[in-house]
Amino acid sequence: MLSAGNSTPPTFFLTGVPGLEAFHIWVSIPFCCLCTIALLGNSTILYVVITDSSLHEPMYYFLSMLSTTDIGITVSSLPTTLGVLWFNARIISLDACIVQMFFLHGFTLMESSVLLAMAFDRFVAICNPLRYAVILTNSRIIKAGVVIFVRMLIILMPLLLLLKGLSFCGPNMLSHSYCYHPDVIKCSCSSIKVNCICGLVALILTSGIDVPCILLSYVLIIKSILSVASPEERQKAFGTCISHIGAVAIFYIPWVILALVHQFGHKAPPYIHTLMSNLHFLFPPVLNPIIYSVKTKQIRKAFCRLFPNTD
């Protein structure tokens, strides 16, 4: 199954949980539970936003975009991970790898953009509330969604197209149960300098722009909130941002740690790579619906209307 240069289509070998291969069936139980929670939670948020007219506001439109990207991330990694855990189906072709990376990295990049859009939404709502409805119109929100999708294509497509020009001599052992771009290019026996440069540029154009802009928006938000005299109004303003701050933290912190592990953790135990990758791709889809349902009063009320007390 090994490939020599580009003479035969290269194949890759996915990895489950190193050291726990004999217990993959048991490992799949918590994994399936987390995926089920992620899919049900985000699908429910999508449903209540679509069906509840009181949630037809910019904040909840962006929340529905966040739930869509979370569903996409979960579904993108699910087939190969379950294949490895249930059937020990570890072999995957380069083309299948590229398709999976398109969806997995694509939804991840779009989630970063959505979090930035949500930060802008909170900035306008708190710093310029009188013009909120004028600035964030439905047409502009639709345009923002289109820009988020196009931005993802522009950043991601060069990375994936460059993979077709690499030679893979094998054995092409991946560190995860899915295809992850830094993991795949390390298997190449040809120069990956251009790939690494493009990967760095893609990182700068996403988190390198999104994170500073989100931080700047919150600096301005905090400055505006502190200028409010009433403690009650301050608390209310901060309360509208807590859910978004939590979503930003659980998305970016595992992402940064995973990138550092791949870059500098060559001597780290293999299960560290597996743990951090699962934290990165599973935590946001699982926790975001919980955070927003607990911290956002309107979402809680919508859930109560959807699931009324039968007592």
Characterise the protein shown here:
This protein has helices spanning 24-51, 58-87, 94-127, 132-135, 138-163, 181-185, 193-205, 207-226, 231-264, 270-295, 297-306; strands spanning 11-13, 91-93. It has 311 residues and is mainly alpha-helical. It has one domain (19-295): Rhopdopsin 7-helix transmembrane proteins. Helix 3 runs antiparallel to helix 5 and helix 8 runs antiparallel to helix 9. The chain is globular, with a radius of gyration of 21 Å. Pfam families: 7tm_4. It is a multi-pass membrane protein.
State the helical fraction: over 70%
Low-pLDDT runs of 5+ residues are 1-6
Beta content: under 5%
Tell me the number of helical segments per DSSP (H or I, 4 or more residues long).
11
Mean of all residue-level pLDDT scores:
89
Question: What structural category characterises the helix and strand content?
Answer: mainly alpha
Q: In CATH, what is the homologous superfamily?
A: Rhodopsin 7-helix transmembrane proteins
CATH topology, by name, is Rhopdopsin 7-helix transmembrane proteins
Tell me which CATH architecture applies here.
Up-down Bundle
Main β-sheet, in a few words?
2 strands, antiparallel
Indicate the overall shape: globular
Rg from C-alpha positions?
21 Å
| Side-by-side strand order of the widest sheet | 1-2
- The count of DSSP E runs of length 2 or more, i.e. the number of strands, is 2
Number of domains: 1
The end-to-end distance, rounded to whole angstroms, is 61 Å
**Helix-strand topology string:** EHHEHHHHHHHHH
Specify the CATH class.
Mainly Alpha
